[in-house]
Amino acid sequence: MSAESERADESDSRRPRILVFHKLMPKFSFGATNFSPQRFERLIQFLVERGHPFVSLSQPLEAEKPLPALPVAVCFDDAYSHLAESLPALIDHYALKPTVFVPTMHIGQPARWDYSYRLRPVRHLDLAEIKTLASLGVEFGSHGHSHSDLTRMDARRLADELVRSRAILEDTIGERVTSVSYPFGRCDARVTDAARNAGYSLGYTMAFPEPSDTPLTRGRLAVYGYDSTLSISRKINGGPLYGFEQAKARITNRLSGGTILYGRLFASNAPRH
Fold first, then answer.
1. If you compute the radius of gyration of the chain from its CA atoms, what whole number of angstroms results?
2. Which contiguous run of DSSP H or E holds residue 40?
3. Cα angle for residues 227, 229, 232 (degrees, 5° grid)
4. What is the mean pLDDT of the chain?
5. Cα–Cα nearest to 117, from 263, 273, 272
């Protein structure tokens, strides 16, 4: 077994495995980011049967409490409106504790920043839906303001993206917001410094977790439409094919560069408010 494939096993066995999803649409969706709500519930059932406890991203684990299996945290980037339909029943039935990362400029609006907007528009959560989900225990974090690549911004716009999105969310849910998921998973030292200065204590990428991760560069296990229960289990538990799953996710995330290019060409994600 290579050092890369063993990484999941070598990391802290109590550290939650963070699964990140995007769309939970029942119908066909262009791109690799859709995981239907039916498949999602089957996955949740599978994790429950295997003894994986669900934790929130902000929930500290009690060191003295033995766990039957690795804890799992579930989060969603982009805050699509269909989460308002899918999550409440799952939260109630499975004690799910999800976190949703919101691109605040697009609250209640179609995802014009995504190339699939021209093929099948998908709306983001609106203010009322965010408040309702927050009342059910859903945690919220920033996904930037305009859903743009933060690494390509000048210092002034970068600070505005991070400060403004946090302020909008805090005003909406009435609670502190301390976490950010970097759009497209892209960050560098300049971005993490800006996130810290904007009041964030946790930052999430789209890379797989590494022992060298810091609180502001935490890796996550991305779940895509081509994933199976078996491949997701490999991502969580590690083993001989962990490196293979890591490579698949890395390639898929790199393809998000097409969405970034789309945004530049059509200027659809430039700040408007």
1. 18
2. helix 37-49
3. 65
4. 86
5. 263
CA–CA separation, 42 and 134 (whole Å):
24
Residues 6+ apart with CB under 8 A from 193: none
Cβ 109 vs Cβ 68: under 8 Å: no
Other beta carbons less than 10 A from residue 186's beta carbon: 18
| Short-list 47, 91, 92, CA closest to 70 | 47
DSSP summary character for residue 153:
S
The b/e string for 120-141 (b: 16+ C-beta within 10 A; e otherwise) is eebbbbeeebbeebbeeebbbb
Tell me whether strands 17-21 and 179-181 are parallel, antiparallel or unpaired: unpaired
pLDDT in tens, 225-273: 999 999 999 999 998 889 999 998 888 877 765 454 444 444 444 444 5
Give just the sign of the alpha carbon dihedral 64, 70, 76, 81.
negative
Q: How far apart are CA 79 and CA 171, in angstroms?
A: 17
In DSSP terms, which residues pair with 142 in a beta bridge? 102, 180
Pairwise CA distance, residues 182 & 151, whole Å: 9
Residues 6+ apart with CB under 8 A from 176: 170
Domains annotated for the chain, with CATH where assigned, are: 7-266 (3.20.20.370)
Over residues 108-141, the pLDDT tens digits come to 999 886 766 566 778 999 999 999 999 999 999 9
Geometric angle at alpha carbon 35, from 29 and 39, rounded to 5°: 130
Residue 15 CA to chain centroid, in angstroms? 17
